[in-house]
Amino acid sequence: MDVEEFRKRGKEMVDYVADYLENIRERRPFPTVTPGYLRELIPDSAPEDPESWDDIFADIERVIMPGVTHWDSPQFHSFFPTANSYPAIIADILSDGIGNIGFTWASSPACTELEVVVLDWLGKMLDLPPAFLFSSGGKGGGVIQGTASEATLVTLLSARTQFLHKHNKSGDGHHDDGAVMSKLVAYCSAQAHSSVERAGLIGAVTMKKLETDEKGALRGTTLQQAIEKDRAAGLIPFYLCATLGTTLSCAFDNVLECGPVCEKEGIWMHIDAAYAGSAFICPEFRPLLNGVKYAMSFNFNPHKWMKVNFDCSALWVQDSSLISDAFNVDPLYLKHENQGKMPDYRHWQIPLGRRFRSLKLWFVIRAYGLKGLQEYIRKDVQLAHDFEKLVVADDRFEIFGEVVMGLVCFRLKGPNDVNEKLLKAVNDDGRINIVPSSVKGTYFLRLAICGSKTNNNDINFAWKVISEVTSKLLQENAC
Ligand code: PLP
Q1: Residue 211 half-sphere exposure, CB side, CA atoms within 13 Å?
Q2: Cα angle value 218/434/29 (rounded, 5°)
Q3: Exactly one of 193, 270, 303, 347 is catalytic; which is it?
Q4: Number of domains composing the chain
Q5: Which stretches of 171-254 are DSSP H helices?
Q6: Which residue, 32, 76, 92, 380, has fewest beta-carbon neighbours within 10 Å?
Q7: In what order do the strands lie in the sheet with 442-448?
Q8: What is the pTM of this model?
Q9: Which residues pair with 145 in a beta bridge?
């Protein structure tokens, strides 16, 4: 492809993407293909000779689209949203064009410097304590990780290293990392995301899931009791991953209670607010983040709910040396003469290479402004409340938990199995897509506001589908 063809085909692709997103309502949100469908549609081996762009382009609709789940569809209500917006897509085109790898300041200074500034912007938008910001002049600062899972893993491994060093220093000079590691215990709530359990597995430490209260929150007393019990058994509690906005039901751990326990006990508190974190840019939701001052690290995904396309997960730490010194290897070819003046982000993450992801955050924040992003969050929360009202008005149904953000958990009154049948029937119908969840043995359905253009008509449509499918199901069950 030469430059003239790139100009032409690039513009065609922009038109294709714009048409795709503007007409996404016309596509079934969840595909009907069966496993192995794609192998039937393309050859077994790569082509020997170049193919024409027309042929390649035509295969998007023929091969790819039949197997695409349309996450930005207003009829897609599963999981949590994954953000989408034109400014972020444009930024990714630029990032791909520049194609730099910003592992150190010297490897592409703009890549590091924009990230430093934009994460301070974002931290201020969230009203994070200054200790998390570069501009405070202390040891704090932010970094973009690919995912919340990586943020949890990086912080857990850093906390683990800190504890190993501490125990080795305080001991008799004999270093037995294996013996200390076998005693390390991390905690999370029973509602924490599976990536937290996985971080424990990868980090080779015990991850204990603690019970939550009736609102799904991990409470300070539960944490305190677990720590005391574990210490009495000779174990070493070292890390808590608290969740603000759980995947199961969007519950909020009580950080104001857990934080002081962690501070007193010398435990690293990490906060995972992967989904709900975006809402903390609105003053009315910011109180849910109170207690963040006790956290050593805080993370949320702008790629979930802040109009920044995947991948962009923002992590802040109060003391970046605990992360950057935790796994420091320093080969000659990565050194540069300005070391120490700006962060070398390779020390803040697991991979070496990193894309220019701050561009999309920068474009989005500027193109919408704080006010535009706040409006966007408020619109989705309002839509969730609109859906909640429809559920409440139908006495066959009940709400599970509390609607705080853009997620509504609901169920048919009665046993789990009828709700399992309802979920299957709704998804088999195909007009909308939802996923189930279960807390303490209660099975329920989750409706998340996902599509960036979801409006009130879409919510009424989702309810119409659920209502129709329910009537049919209950009729069949009665026969
Ligand atoms: N934590 C929470 C609370 C989540 O809801 C999710 C995903 O939905 C994750 C972590 C994992 O996010 P990621 O895919 O960015 O690792």
Answers
A1: 7
A2: 140
A3: 193
A4: 1
A5: 177-181, 194-202, 220-232
A6: 32
A7: 397-399, 407-412, 442-448, 435-439
A8: 0.95
A9: 313
Residue 209's domain comprises 100-355
Res 333: pLDDT: 87
**195 pocket-lining for ligand 1 (C-beta < 6 Å):** yes
Looking up residue 161, the CATH number of its domain turns out to be 3.40.640.10
| Pairing label, strands 184-189, 236-243 | parallel
95 close to 356: Cβ distance less than 8 angstroms: yes
Pairing of strands 268-272, 297-300: parallel
| Beta strands 206-210; 268-272: pairing state | unpaired
Which strand (E) or helix (H) includes residue 209?
A: strand 206-210
β partners of residue 188: 209, 241
Residue 329 counted as domain residue: yes
Residue 139 counted as domain residue: yes
d(CA 274, CA 277): 6
Mean pLDDT of the region 236-250: 97
Report the DSSP beta bridge partners of residue 442: 439
Tell me, what DSSP letter sits at residue 397?
E
Strands 397-399 and 407-412: what pairing? antiparallel
Mention every residue, 6+ apart, whose C-beta is less than 8 A from residue 400. Answer: 249, 409, 410, 411, 439, 442, 444
Phi-psi region of 42 (alpha: psi -120 to 50; beta: other; left: phi over 0): beta
**Which of 401, 379, 370, 386 minimizes the C-alpha distance to 283?**
370
Top mutation candidate among 155, 247, 253, 313 for ligand 1, by most atoms within 8 Å of CB: 247
| Whether 193 is catalytic | yes
Residue of 150, 249, 272 to mutate, ligand 1, most atoms within 8 A of C-beta: 272
Query: Is it the case that residue 398 has pLDDT exceeding 90?
Result: yes
pLDDT in tens, 368-392: 999 999 999 999 999 999 999 999 9
Tell me the one-letter amino acid at 192.
A
Distances in Å between the Cα of 283 and the Cα atoms of 112, 126, 275, 371 are 29, 9, 17, 11
Start-end of H helices in 279-348:
302-305, 321-324
> Are the C-beta atoms of 347 and 328 separated by less than 8 Å?
yes
pLDDT at residue 479, rounded to an integer: 67
Rounded distance from Cα 274 to ligand 1 centre (Å): 5
- What is the C-alpha separation between 17 and 12, in angstroms, rounded? 9
Rounded distance between C-alpha atoms, residue 86 and residue 84, angstroms: 7
Q: How many CB atoms lie within 10 A of CB 61?
A: 11
Ligand 1: centre distance to CA 193 (Å)? 6
Q: Is residue 321 part of a domain?
A: yes
Query: Mean pLDDT over residues 393-419, rounded?
Result: 97
Answer yes or no: is 371 within a domain: no
SS3 call for 208: strand
Residue indicated by tokens 């499918």: 469
What pLDDT is recorded for position 207? 97
Q: Using CA positions, which residue lies closest to atom 5 of ligand 1?
A: 247
